[in-house]
């Protein structure tokens, strides 16, 4: 990568006019074929060695799709006689974008210095960008030292690149030092760079402080904080800030929209998701693949599988990620046959499945009890598509076989696995033991799980429930005592319900809601109506050796029932009651919900830790198979 010092032949002003016309007619981010066509025209006009023409061509290589081969950029540069700063800076930029090792850009910079090509405030940001590709703080420090030596450390453009570089390297102390060094030499880009660095480091407390101090905020500032909240699991704050952003009339970008749709999906908040979709429609935002896939996923995870299908069908184009979202969405709603049919259509259209595609297909087979189909797809995954099973695929198969009572086949599959089984897989098998009342096998697996993960509360609870189902109360007490001695507490179950723009969260026995008195009165009324209709609580899931009357009282205050009572209070007839649970719904709450829909003629949609339950007229979409 040495600079060539031959002299240029004179180029006519007419030829220069043609080169400008040729290159300015290209799109802002041209493809390789478009660049090659333009380059060919320059060659025909005798401009292949013109600094102006080829420098412009290099600049287009630097900003276009990263798939442009770095060898092509080097070949273009080698034709320039007496390269100037503009051409050299653009080659550094090409090296930075093309995935070349940082050393290549630094060596080229060294060549520039040696032959006397002037550097400027564009050179160093491109060098720092090259060092950021595979963050190397030592090489970046060398660049930093050199720009200080050349007196460019006060330049705003250079300082912003330094703040961004150190933040990418996880060196927030150094990033903040550069940010604070010259307060007069910073703009909204400087603030956004430090904001993004703290968000990436999951320091949302500092992000909030910086955001509050910003003298000026743009869409990037708001988006950075929203993305930081959502990626950090602070979903409600992310959604709340998005609404404030919209209220201020700020334009949104695709990254923000996809992020808030992801938050809605994770929380199962349909009203919030529909609000975001409404924004997309109102501003006529282009429906990209990423945005369309996020909408398909959001509606599926918020319990509106019909709307998810509608969005999927209306997408202008669909890639494998969109298909995966739709297949997985159908699977979680127990629509196994529909998911399998969609997968067949996917194959028919010539698309290639991924490991995620088969997780969706196998999960669909498991939820719908399609044992024969599940075996066939598991086999075809390896033999026809060359995809080696991962833990999720084995988990789906063990779940499928376990639910169907084929325990020996499930055990045999685990023993034949090409990778060591993880605790989740054994937990799936333990759940099947509980379902089918296989106490001896359940005890063996449960004890094995507790040895593997002594701090995991779910293993103790599941083992205790196996004992409880067999009425072995002494063993239940031993498990609970062991759990207590090891300082492991059972995760509290909660239920969310969204009503008129607000999210209401309930835990078992909750008395903190502002409408708590009315909720419990409603729950008592519901209990009386269901008892008159023949409902009697199933208390087998209560892991205590206490009287049935006390067990009924324990079950009566489960979080899901409180949410249902609240839903009956706030939603008019005809509006579904949508509930999101963090744990798998217990058997009696499932029966309770079915009876409510029959007696009160309401529809209830529950997303638990396992799947969706669409309950109407006393029947559930899961067919009591979950």
Overview in brief:
The protein has 626 residues and is mainly alpha-helical. Helices cover 64% and strands 5% of the residues. Among the domains are: 326-409; 422-485, Serine Threonine Protein Phosphatase 5, Tetratricopeptide repeat; 494-620, no CATH class.
Structure description:
α5 packs parallel to α7 (123-133), α17 runs antiparallel to α18 and α25 runs parallel beside α27. This protein has a six-stranded mixed beta sheet, with helices on one face. Among the domains are: 326-409; 422-485, Serine Threonine Protein Phosphatase 5, Tetratricopeptide repeat; 494-620, no CATH class. It has helices spanning 13-24, 32-44, 51-63, 70-78, 85-97, 102-115, 123-133, 137-149, 156-168, 172-181, 188-200, 204-213, 219-231, 235-247, 254-267, 270-282, 289-301, 305-314, 320-332, 336-348, 355-368, 371-383, 391-403, 407-415, 423-436, 439-452, 457-469, 473-485, 516-532, 548-556, 559-570, 587-599, and strands at 494-499, 502-507, 577-581, 603-607, 612-616, 619-620. 64% of the residues lie in helices and 5% in strands. β3 (577-581), α32 and β4 (603-607) form a beta-alpha-beta unit. It has 626 residues and is mainly alpha-helical. Residues 1-13 and 543-553 have low confidence and may be disordered.
